[in-house]
Amino acid sequence: MAVSELDPNQSLDAYWMPFSHNRYFKQDAAHRSNRMLAKAEGSYYWTTEGNRLYDALSGLWCCGLGHRHPRLVEAVKRQLDVLDYATAFQMGTPAVFHLAERIAEQAPAGFEHVFFCNSGSEAVDTALKMALAYHRARGEAHRTRFIGREKGYHGVGFGGISVGGMVANRKMFAAGMLQGVDHLPHTHNLKEMAFSRGEPQWGLHLVEELERLVALHDASTIAAVIVEPMQGSAGVIVPPAGYLKRLREICSKHGILLIFDEVITAFGRMGKPFAAQHYGVSPDLITFAKGVNNGLVPMGGVLATRNMYDTFMAGPAHLVEFFHGYTYSGHALAVAAAHATLDVLADEQIYPRVESLAGVLEECVHSLKGEANIVDIRNCQLAAAVELAPLDGKPGLRALRVFEEALKRGVLFRFTGDIIAMGPTFISSPDELAQMTDVLRQSIHAAG
Ligand code: PMP
């Protein structure tokens, strides 16, 4: 396959890479030679040197249908011939109204409204603001506290890092945090639940910490609890059996809104449109992004219940009901890609396919149990993680080595700390999952 060339004289200095070790990447051509992407198709990338890489994380959890799906590409090209950008405020397009309706139809019962934005981070900020404004509209403006969870990831807006619980993402910006945020304890405990398949049987008791926080602050001060149904970015930390159901019960008892951040889990990864359906637990707000249009054009959104929407609509009729929105909310190209994505999800029967691939992935990753230096293996539908013991006492070093060894062997994994994460494309074959697992095994051996 033809690939675009890397000009050897191209300076790498100007581009400040996101969530990346810039100096390491830029200092040594040997490190980056395999890390310049030029082309993608289906479950594979090609580097500028022409090496093929199996994309073990579907982009960053967003390209489940594979790269450059012909129907998505076609839909965006067709849209470009008609309308590029449609001004978003006080105006709309038929396609964006229709898209909201289609998304709401797939959501758990009661979710009837969709607010669009452009990323997961924006979706989280939107949901937090909706929660505050909702309570205010109902005469409960004193409900201002948020409760997140340790190891939670909710993007990089100030709202998201405040309710998020990944220490590295927070500590550089401590002074800018939202006030009045608490965190539930995480449920990641290698002593108690290492090598669980699917939902761990240990850890349900930790949800009762919410009662402690409610007693401490008084329910009347708490606006919402926000959690990822499955903690993806922290390394596929799966909720203990019964955890989300109990969380729902406690929130309902105290009039606290429950927000599911489904930026990773929505639109395929869980074998259902939403993790809420997989777990049989219905929150009050759902954020989504990534999978909604397969990462083709940035898009995110928030699903709200009829009750929430009606509360806003009950205000003075001449006023904007929710003073919030983005220039690119419901961008015409993103909307076109999302319609095509929903078509493909249905026509290619992706949800049942993911359900069956999930069993294959579970068998594959747990076959690594017993290999040296693996301290945990976790899986949740079409997501999995292998946690490694740190090398020479340096956190993250072993996973970095494994990542590089895997690149040499044609697989692109994501690593975070000492965790190797996998979120294969929905179109992967069982053979590809087996090969990915073999490469991981070899790479762990080679990393020493
Ligand atoms: N929430 C969750 C649960 C996520 O996984 C992510 C991204 N991985 C985000 C929010 C932020 O999304 P974005 O990077 O599109 O802002």
From TrEMBL:
UniProt keyword annotations, A-Z: Aminotransferase, Pyridoxal phosphate, Transferase
Membrane-spanning ranges: none
Keyword Transferase (UniProt): yes
The protein's required cofactors: pyridoxal 5'-phosphate
Keyword Transferase belongs to the record: yes
Classification via InterPro entries: Aminotrans_3, Aminotrans_3_PPA_site, PyrdxlP-dep_Trfase, PyrdxlP-dep_Trfase_major, PyrdxlP-dep_Trfase_small
Matches recorded under Gene3D superfamilies: Aspartate Aminotransferase, domain 1 (3.90.1150.10), Type I PLP-dependent aspartate aminotransferase-like (Major domain) (3.40.640.10)
UniProt record, GO biological process: biotin biosynthetic process
GO MF annotation, one: adenosylmethionine-8-amino-7-oxononanoate transaminase activity
Cited SUPFAM superfamilies: PLP-dependent transferases (SSF53383)
UniProt record similarity statement: Belongs to the class-III pyridoxal-phosphate-dependent aminotransferase family.
Protein name stated in the entry: Aspartate aminotransferase family protein
